[in-house]
Amino acid sequence: MSDLHADKVSVAFAGLRALSEVDLTVSSGQIVGLIGPNGAGKTTLVNVLTGFQTPTEGAVTLDGQRLSGLKPNLLRRRGIARTFQGGRLFRDLPVIDNLEVTGVGLGQSRRAAIAEAEAMLEWVGIAPLASRIAGTLPYTDERRVAIGRALMGRPKYLLLDEPAAGMSGQEAADLSALIRRIAGEMGCGVLLIEHNVGLVLNLCDHIVVLDSGAVIETGPPAQIRDSETVRHAYMGTATDTDLPVLEVGA
Ligand SMILES: Nc1ncnc2c1ncn2[C@@H]1O[C@H](COP(=O)(O)OP(=O)(O)OP(=O)(O)O)[C@@H](O)[C@H]1O
Ligand SMILES: [Mg+2]
Which residue CA neighbors atom 9 of ligand 1 most closely? Predict the structure, then answer.
């Protein structure tokens, strides 16, 4: 069983049920989309899968093994990496150091971390940014650096929290190509949170839709695109015919 799995995960915050018995599985080499309106619980689920949030009920398993109570840095060493909705780079450090520090944090020697950082920047296609100070980058570049950093140590799973937010059509298309390579060439299982539904429909093998903390639909892209339930969640009405952000170019 090579997968990362949320098993009936619930999270309650002081009376608010942020997640209710959510099941979700990401397998090696697979791209799974996680969509849903603002406040649906998407980031909370990523927090649970990466050890930043302890579930109130339910469990997370990696390759069939329970991961309960493990801290984020231990899960990272076990191969579960993520990016954050706001980027969260080490803003005062050059791009290359952002990757190197992460490699060292994962237990690599400094020399090995530098070598992997250089190779990773090349692989992601951002080698020319190596000596730029991370905090001075436009946020679209910041996102790619965050992805490169998350790929240090070759994680088995990569969870991306809105990596395309604010990107132009071309930038989102480039990002889609990169995500395909992460799954296809690295064999990484990818969980993609994204508000650009067009991008998600084009890119993902499987999609899970959350609304108010519950899974309201799950299936292949065509099924999600045609789902009345999903349409209602986004539009709040039965008569609308299209999902909202169906942007092309993804
Ligand atoms: N630490 C917390 N304490 C209390 N409530 C929280 C906390 N984190 C999230 N919530 C609440 O849980 C719900 C789910 O939030 P979450 O951030 O997971 O949604 P989301 O789907 O990622 O939304 P968005 O699309 O805006 O990023 C929201 O109602 C949010 O206000
Ligand atoms: Mg969020």
Answer: 44
The single-letter code of the amino acid at 75 is L
Q: Which CATH number describes the domain made up of 22-235?
A: 3.40.50.300
Strands (E) across the chain are located at 3-13, 16-27, 31-35, 57-62, 65-66, 80-82, 157-161, 189-193, 206-211, 214-219
Q: Which ligand is nearest to the CA of 234?
A: 1
pLDDT at 243 over 60: no
State the pairing for strand pair 157-161/80-82.
Answer: parallel
pTM above 0.90, yes or no: yes
Query: Taking the domains of the chain in order of start, what are their residue ranges?
Result: 22-235
Neighbours of ion ligand 2 (CB under 5 A): 42-43
Among candidates 3, 10, 33, which has minimal Cα distance to 214? 10
Q: What's the one-letter identity of residue 44?
A: T
Pocket perturbation via mutation, ligand 1, pick of 13, 56, 82, 162 by most ligand atoms within 8 A of CB: 13
Reported as a single tens digit per residue, the pLDDT across 36-77 is 999 999 999 999 999 999 999 999 999 999 998 899 999 999
